[in-house]
Amino acid sequence: MAKSLVARSEADQRFTWDSESVFPEESGWEQAVEEILARLPDLQEFKGHLRDSPDTLADWFDANERAHRLMAKLMVYTTMSYSVDVGDQVAAARTDRARSVAAQLGAASSFAVPEMLTIGIPKLRDWVAASPRLAHLGHYFDRLEKLQKRIRSAEIEELLTQVSDPLATALSVHSVLANTDLKFAPAVGADGELHEVAQGTIANLMTSPDREVRRTAFESYGDEHLRMQHAMAASLAGGVKRDVFFARARGYASSLEAALEPSHIPVEVFHNVVRTFRANVGTWHR
């Protein structure tokens, strides 16, 4: 008899996400969406006024953080249902809507960083030193100074935030393809027992003490990916183009540099890690 995964609806509730701890009812999630959208005009009212005073800037950070904290809570709730069953159309619709709201929130607040840079880093540091409400933002402005050459105008920043939603389509397509549409043949143990192959089981199957389980699980997993190789490749190409677009929009030499620079990691460090690993791959094999 095959060892199969239980359906999500049949899983023991003790081993499922406690979504009620985030929002007791789904209506709470809907209310959060409406609250975020209602706050967008309030955030926009700060546009052109961040340089007015340290308190105005602190008010902006407070309002922006409240909105983004609520957005994070909304995304956590969304992920709890979608990540465990990508085929759940209700959860998929909720995820898509949350992504759209996040893009709208990002667009509404996109003016802030360009406007802060017009105030000037030295003056911002003076405000940090003088205002207790901004005292915790010293490191934030240090990072902003290092990345300021990558910041575009307020209008372009707004546009880049708005397109983040449609340009995430390749990732969404791959997620659905990998987690819903791929159908794997079961792995077969040396004793003839069948084991269901799925994204949630492949790691354990590949470490099974039964060599036949490992071999047949690997072949099943690989063969199904090969069957969908053209769709996978097209999805990957879409993701690569997205990364290249954002890298070029901010003046990076490559998408690798764009991924590393915000964390202050030189590109050469990345290449050195790869070279070192390759030079010592024999050690890893042993």
Plain-language structure description:
This protein has 14 helices and two strands, in the order ααααααααββαααααα. The chain has helices spanning 26-44, 54-82, 89-108, 112-119, 121-130, 138-147, 154-162, 169-181, 202-205, 211-227, 229-249, 255-260, 267-279, 281-285, and strands at residues 187-188, 194-195. A two-stranded antiparallel ribbon has the order 1-2. The chain is globular and about 75 Å long.
Layout of secondary structure:
Layout: H1 26-44, H2 54-82, H3 89-108, H4 112-119, H5 121-130, H6 138-147, H7 154-162, H8 169-181, E1 187-188, E2 194-195, H9 202-205, H10 211-227, H11 229-249, H12 255-260, H13 267-279, H14 281-285
Antiparallel strand pairs: 1-2
Summed up:
With 286 residues, this protein is an all-alpha fold. It has 14 helices and two strands; from the N terminus they run H-H-H-H-H-H-H-H-E-E-H-H-H-H-H-H. It has helices at residues 26-44, 54-82, 89-108, 112-119, 121-130, 138-147, 154-162, 169-181, 202-205, 211-227, 229-249, 255-260, 267-279, 281-285, and strands spanning 187-188, 194-195.
